[in-house]
Amino acid sequence: MKVMKVGLLGLGVVGEGTWKLLRSNMGELERRTGVRIEVTQVAVRDLAKARAKIGDAVPLTQDGLDVVRSPDVDVVVELMGGLNPAYDWVMEAIAQGKHVVTANKALLAERGNEIFQAAREKGVIVAFEAAVAGGIPVVKALREGLTANHIQWVAGIINGTTNFILSEMRTRGLTFKQALAEAQELGYAEADPTFDVEGIDAAHKLTLLASLAFGIPVPFGKAHAEGISDLTRKDVANAERLGYRIKLLGITRRTEKGIELRVHPTLIPAESLLANVSGAMNAVLVNGDAVGSTLYYGAGAGQMPTASAVVADLVDVARMASALPDHQVPHLGFQAAAMANTPILSMSDVYSAYYLRLRVKDRPGVLAELAGILAEEGISIGSMVQEPHGDEEADIIFLLHRALEGNVDRALERIQSLGFVKSKVIRLRMETEL
Amino acid sequence: MKVMKVGLLGLGVVGEGTWKLLRSNMGELERRTGVRIEVTQVAVRDLAKARAKIGDAVPLTQDGLDVVRSPDVDVVVELMGGLNPAYDWVMEAIAQGKHVVTANKALLAERGNEIFQAAREKGVIVAFEAAVAGGIPVVKALREGLTANHIQWVAGIINGTTNFILSEMRTRGLTFKQALAEAQELGYAEADPTFDVEGIDAAHKLTLLASLAFGIPVPFGKAHAEGISDLTRKDVANAERLGYRIKLLGITRRTEKGIELRVHPTLIPAESLLANVSGAMNAVLVNGDAVGSTLYYGAGAGQMPTASAVVADLVDVARMASALPDHQVPHLGFQAAAMANTPILSMSDVYSAYYLRLRVKDRPGVLAELAGILAEEGISIGSMVQEPHGDEEADIIFLLHRALEGNVDRALERIQSLGFVKSKVIRLRMETEL
């Protein structure tokens, strides 16, 4: 049987999962591919810890360059995370003519364009199914399964940590802090959770999804990222009462003026499939002009689900390696020469529906004045709820129809400066057609 | 730009959709593939009707053999449906060394093994994404995206007609007949709906899914198919009240003794994702040992969604055609020499949970006798509801824990013969962990 030799960079959670999966499912993999996929070299920081995990079967080194330069390695699997030394080692692997499989979304979101260009020049594959939504084969769906479509938009729950926290806030009435503490206890959130809860991890993944969907260079740094740390129990409960749920969504959409690229808490109808994705699960909704909306759901993180995607990429490499280079699936799903330079829209150019909540002095004329400002900015009110708060004040909730965010910004600035407005105006985006 | 020449067999709903999609999205397809995909020959029954649809751009014929033998055709797309002449023309296309793309589930379920063998011998690709679940790229997910996994089971809503009917029965309280009439009016059901409502179409698709999931030859004729035409409003409402919904599921599962392969109405928890797939939509849940459960959702039929899958297959052919034959994705996802001969289980060897409903004389001892029979057959009761019906009778509903169907059959036979049982015992299967 043919052998494909794998050099593994990193033996953390996902690295160990990949090692285990290649062994436990070796038989099924050989039945599928007719190829034996063997790990022949491993680079790790801590040699003793690695020995304890995988024994003496494979040479270990602390220097990834030993692995990527080894004649005993056909494909390099990078599972270290972080930018350095991952970037240097991946670039050297490519320079050595080795195919690369990686789960490193930060690396690809930040340096993907250079990496893919180097790979094209050397005619090697860089596969990254595991970098977006873990075990869900959504990169493959976008690059291949839906290839006949103009993709119109993608909207996804692509961070399990925040989806777990939001699920706990909703079902158990916890505050953000309480739910975060629980997520940390259960291992769903890191000690420093910033990356997840502020939407940065989701923005990295969305950045890759946008490139795959629309055939644009990886638009690093252009995503609007807003997290869930300011979200209150009150707004979670209000959303529920109004027939919605709040999810941290990554949304990217092709419009006439450019591409929307944004991560933020979003109200979506409670009966929608996305709203019913709970716990640490992920789901990505993709809309194409021919196929309509399709959804991909599964575990977006975790040792074995992520390893499932890494190993699927290895099988793809085994299969595609012998195709003519210009017949191989392009890294980003489009021919390099055909990438578009469609602009990414700023948030003020984005259209969305909105949820607003504010506290006001409860006196005649308040509502008329608020409604007047919204009307003047061309914003139409879908519905309104008013609730007394103490003797003299009231909470008002507006659900606004789709409007230009720049107009909403202006309206909010004017509303915030009104004398009778007693709180910061809370503004959440809302998508009613997911 | 390279050109791939397509011969089209059939210009019905999906054929016309494919024709339109190749034109409307030509630019995006060229950006993705670097290849121009051109229809160069078309075979149709009605030449005049075809001319009205596509004009004079392409030679038309009534004989598919003209198309498959034409030197001006690289790939044959079969969208006629039915066994004949589809089978002969596809086999001749293969004999001519042409790649084949087909949406014909009946053809592949019944004659797939011969077709795939002929294709292997000639080293050509037979792609069939459109044959299962329309526009949802679930064939690709099973063959490639989840290739690292031992697939444990697949459970899916893979017939849109019946899902539409069941949705209408549940939400509007219609009878099966009323909902069917409405489906026919809206074009979701054929004049003769047997194929859909008796589960035969779903069984064809499930047969292909089982082969893809487990690496077995296409197990034609081995699926248990039970439709929805006997389903009553009463049972639909009972399911709802107990926290379940009834869906026509195709289920295939790997067990120690063999493979379960069955289509039947099934109670599933109302909050599950599958239960929330409504109208004519499809969804397939796939469980792998590494990735866990993943779900694929979208339009399972219709002109443009199905065309989306056909054209994706054409792009795959364009890409894979230059790979070494033993590197191409195998037709059924496993190497031909590695197909297993795992037996398909008869229904009496299947394990399931159950819903039972029966009418009894309302007198002391009835329940004890029923519970006694179930216990003797090793069947454990999950819950029980009793409702008076008139003065002297009562309806009893049992929810049974997982049990061997053979035991349940025996218990039902004994119960049916009891003097105090006044109705046919209704038995529906139930899956509590989807």
TrEMBL record, chains A, B:
The UniProt record lists the keyword Flavoprotein: no
Domain of life: Bacteria
The protein's enzyme class: oxidoreductase
SUPFAM superfamilies named in the record: ACT-like, Glyceraldehyde-3-phosphate dehydrogenase-like, C-terminal domain, NAD(P)-binding Rossmann-fold domains
EC number: 1.1.1.3
Record keywords, A-Z: Amino-acid biosynthesis, Methionine biosynthesis, NADP, Oxidoreductase, Threonine biosynthesis
InterPro entries assigned to the protein according to its UniProt record, in alphabetical order: ACT-like_dom_sf, ACT_dom, Asp/hSer_DH_NAD-bd, HDH, HDH_cat, HDH_CS, NAD(P)-bd_dom_sf
Any single Pfam family the record assigns to this protein: NAD_binding_3
Record has Amino-acid biosynthesis as a keyword: yes
PROSITE patterns: ACT, HOMOSER_DHGENASE
NCBIfam families associated with the record: PRK06349.1
Family listed: Belongs to the homoserine dehydrogenase family.
Protein name: Homoserine dehydrogenase
Organism: Mesopusillimonas faecipullorum
